[in-house]
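are you around this afternoon, could really use another pair of eyes. what follows is a protein written twice so to speak, once as letters and once as structure tokens for the fold. i want to understand how the tokens follow from the sequence so walk me through it. anything you notice is useful, everything is just below.
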Amino acid sequence: MKRNMRCKAFASTVGAWLLGLPGIALAADSAPARYAAADTIWVLLGAALVFFMQPGFAMVETGLTRAKNAGNIVMKNVMDLCLGTIAFWVIGFGLMFGTDVGGFIGIPDFFISGWDVGSDAGYPKMAFIIFQTVFCATSATIVSGAMAERTKFSTYCIYSLAISLLIYPVSGHWIWGGGWLAEMGFHDFAGSTAVHMVGGVCALIGAKMLGARIGKYGEDGTVNAIPGHSLTLAALGVFILWFAWFGFNGCSTVSMTGDETLETASMIFVTTNMATAAATTTAMLLTWIRYGKPDVSMTLNGSLAGLVAITAGCDVVSVGGSFVIGVIAGVTVVYAVEFIDQKLKIDDPVGASAVHGVCGALGTILTGLFAVKEGLLYTGKTEFFFVQVLGVVSVVLFVSVMITIVFSVLKATMGLRVTAKEEIVGLDYEEHGLASAYADFMPTPETPGTTAAPAPIGQAAPPVAPIIRSADGHALTNVSIVTSRERFEPLKAELEKLGITGMTVTQVLGYGLQKGHSMYRGAHVASRLLPKIKVDLVVSAIPPRDIVEAAKRALYTGHYGDGKIFVSNVDNVIKIRTGEEGFDALQDKEI
């Protein structure tokens, strides 16, 4: 009995001491909780998932571009998140969610000092702020892929800031901040227009003003494909985005309270997945029919097209409607990529303009058709459909004007594009002093013949000593040419003019005076082997001197890295198929 009394007294003393500490109170004496734990956790989970879209975009863009620019791509994706976070905090959030002024803009609320969530919100102010911040960063990062491999890093940082500071917040206010489109009933649940189309329009105009990558289009208008260096990375990025999109769309309910909300969130997960699966399958089948084989990169674009298209109406369409939207998006993205690339001659390495711009607009308009309660196909009424069209057109016009001004100013002052030399060498090295984004691993080589370099620059190449030939004119000579990988196309073109019918092309590593010095974390990196290409030709009928002169014409710039030519005698050549040897073995004839 005495022991129990001592325990009670001790507990009473500890309780009294705890009650005296700041912020500590017993449940019975505390005020009713304002926020719902489920709602707060749901919003924070959504913020984390949308944040996780950044590495998804980074992997897609890196995989669909060349290895020499991989470090530059990931750097841009890191910085648009960081710069966007700061810009959105300083002024962007206020312009988007501040007190409405005439339906067009919010009153600036610097550093989000005055704004607060409504009294009926089930989550704290900070939860909503971080949720909206990562959405803003998503819109800015879309532009990176379309303008990849030739944009100045400094310029990229500036226009990324402009998107997060002004362009995205103002158009977002119209849709989500209580602006004039919201008043009219425009429906863009999670951002097909507010996020993706805004980024896609900026990407299209930026890629157009920037110009195509070197070698993308021939003088006669032909289109030269420049494959990305890793479809594996691109596929990983798509899977990351698909996964994170459940937070992008599903958590946009910003609530998990009440049976109706739970049903809506569950439906969003299903419609999001269905549209994506349908778009991916459609793109795969369409490319199989059109190209003779299912195209991997275009199929990945199909996945993203489905995700973007369903984002506007994922909460108001049926599962069947989401399937149809996905099919339409899968068809549209294939033709949109081809049209932008081959007809408009706008070089968009990752298809961002088609995926986010075209399919963002498409998905928003299709919501006007397939929304179960208001859609034209369900009600026969056109009002909602026309509001959707009006919203898309209005945002396209606003964003087009604003981003054109931004790019024009930057082009006239800082410049948008790196030099031809920097582009050929790669932005990893030229912009960041990074010899390779893959450390000691050799970058995946580009397929010979898929890229081209500009015409040689500088003065004429110095002469070389004449090559000695045998008296009978049938000496066998091996000419080995070692140069940078990016110079293969002009070299190949010059050699083909001589009538060369075959060559051996090898990806090699090496360095000369160029050494390959670089910096990493502020420290010098020891001489590093650089990726090169070696072309071997054994000739007899064609004079070796002609090959040397052709190689000089194609490769000479007067700078380190032009390469070297090695000429040596060959004792014999044997053609295995016929048994012919010497001169006869080199005279190929069609079978």
